[in-house]
Amino acid sequence: GTTAFDIINQDIVRYYGVGPYWEGRGFPDYEGIPVLKFDPRRKIIADWRLDGGYWVVSNRTRELLEKLDGDAFDFRPTISSQGKNPVPGGPFWLCDVIRVLDAVDEERSELYMGQTQTVDGTLINRRYQSIHLARFRPEIVGEAHVFDLARNSMAVVDDIFVEAITKAKITGIAFCDLQSIDRANRRRRHYSLPPLSRPEQGA
């Protein structure tokens, strides 16, 4: 199928430039405003799309994200149109998660760690290659409703965030439960691991 939109001036504005936050997150000071031309053949434009590591979100989505947890995001405006008409749901915004927390409780979680070994044997750059079952440290998460993992590019959200997005009927995004036993067991099968048992009711 066709892409949802084309970036008309990406070379001029340095669309994929490095941002000022953790590991290049966020957006640089663009030399102009990105121009997005949405495919006029598309009858439905989703509120939320992924483009090269960035989210592209509708105006109502941006307003909701700022209300939910504004400090977690960086936004940049775009000039967006569909054919000769304004795009429904526009203007659209570039969006990136800039809050990064090293909040996984590794002792209580099930994950696979990738490590880079230096010449002297020192292990560095510990990254989560796969997360089957995640538990988080509440003293690190605090009041945050959304954050990126420091050792994985995954964005993590809480139940308040999911409920608000669902209630607003934001389209184009889906969630997976990192604390689901069923999900963990589906992933365990790929590694020929036995299934985890469910905790007893009331335990």
Which features characterize this protein?
203 residues, alpha+beta, four-stranded mixed β-sheet, four-stranded antiparallel β-sheet, 5 helices, 19% helix
Would you mind describing this structure in some detail?
- This protein is α+β, with helices and mostly antiparallel strands and 203 residues long.
- 19% of the residues lie in helices and 29% in strands.
- It contains five helices and 13 strands.
- It has a four-stranded mixed sheet with strand order 1-2-6-7, with no helix packed on it. Strands 3-4-8-5 form a four-stranded antiparallel sheet.
- The mean pLDDT is 84.
The unreliable regions are: none
Which H/E pattern describes the elements?
Answer: EHEEEHEEEEEEEHEEHH
* Radius of gyration from the alpha-carbon trace, in angstroms: 20 Å
Mean pLDDT: 84
Bin the helical content: 10-25%
Strand count, sense and barrel status of the largest sheet are: 4 strands, mixed
Spatial sequence of strands, sheet with the most strands = 1-2-6-7
If helices are DSSP runs of H or I spanning 4 or more residues, what is the number of helices? 5
The percentage of residues in β strands lies in 25-35%
Q: Count all strands and give the number.
A: 13
Please tell me what the overall shape is. globular
Report the end-to-end length measured between terminal Cα atoms. 49 Å
Supply the helix-strand structural class: alpha+beta
